[in-house]
Design brief:
alpha/beta, 12 helices, Sulfhydrogenase subunit delta, NiFe_Hase_small_N_sf, Rossmann fold
């Protein structure tokens, strides 16, 4: 696969996204320069090299799939790559732009564009795994650059790394952080959100807003009932689940259940979203 070069080949591809995950990669600074001395980075438009059709060992993919041309390009990337790794919420769960899946996107486009029929837009914004086979998914908005670097080293060594899917609360406990939900009554999503950020928001006395997606075995039913008991409205609870990872189960089911409850002025039945 390496052709004339004996060094592993890496590509970083972008689809519909804000570029934040690529920037997290770039912000590694010196460790990224060290990596560049051991691998050939053939495509990384944000950093300079461009070769979308390069045959590589690892293809990192940022962003969701919004157009038919996106889907065609993604299929080619899968064909040219030994490993495909999604980086960030957009690639793994559709991201912010997937919120259009919950509404009439056609109506939105008609209200903005004079001739929306010329837009090449899929009915829904799709995560990468909904279109091609994905070998590994890294969550986050943005992704953790150090985690990307560690995954790269593991894959080049020939094995899939273990990703920690435990809740953010575990990171808080390891760092001896005071719980902002218990002490300040904030609607922290830490109990149902997987770690990876190092509990960044709670360490700044802010509530987690679930940018790393659902934790393993997240009990969203019990958690959302707790949020309701604090006085949050069904709509507010639904928004907490659907904000960034609206296509990720069980957040998707829970969020939709609470929005339906808001419309009918009821509460979801116990177990909704599990």
């Amino acid at each position: 696969m390496h052709g004339a070069s004996s060094r592993p080949r890496v590509a970083v591809h972008k689809f519909s996204s804000c570029d934040g995950c690529q920037l997290a990669f770039l912000n590694l600074g010196e460790p990224l320069l060290v990596l560049a001395e051991t691998v050939d980075i053939l495509h990384f438009a944000e950093a300079g090299p461009i070769d979308e059709d390069a045959v590589v060992d690892i293809a990192f993919v940022e962003g969701s799939i919004a157009t038919s041309k996106d889907a065609e390009r993604l299929a080619k990337i899968r064909e040219n790559s030994r490993y495909v790794v999604t980086i960030g919420a957009c690639a793994t769960a559709g991201g912010i732009q997937a919120l259009r899946n919950l509404h009439d996107a056609g109506e939105w486009m008609a209200g903005i564009y004079a001739q929306p029929e010329f837009l090449d837009l899929l009915p829904e914004s799709k995560p990468i795994a909904a279109v091609i086979k994905v070998d590994l998914e890294l969550w986050g908005c943005p992704v953790n650059g150090a985690q990307v670097l560690g995954v790269t080293k593991s894959l080049l060594a020939g094995h899939l790394p273990r990703i920690d899917h435990s809740a953010v609360c575990m990171s808080c406990k390891r760092q001896n952080l005071v719980c902002v939900m218990v002490t300040q009554g904030k609607p922290c999503m830490g109990p149902v959100t997987q770690t990876g950020c190092g509990a960044l928001c709670p360490s700044m006395q802010r509530d987690c807003y679930a940018c790393y997606g659902p934790a393993a075995q997240a009990n969203v039913s019990a958690f959302s009932q707790h949020l309701a008991a604090t006085g949050m409205t069904p709509r507010e609870i639904g928004q907490r689940f659907l904000f960034i990872n609206s296509q990720a189960s069980p957040f998707a089911d829970a969020g939709k259940a609470w929005f339906d409850a808001a419309a009918s002025e009821t509460q979801p039945v116990s177990g909704a979203g599990q």
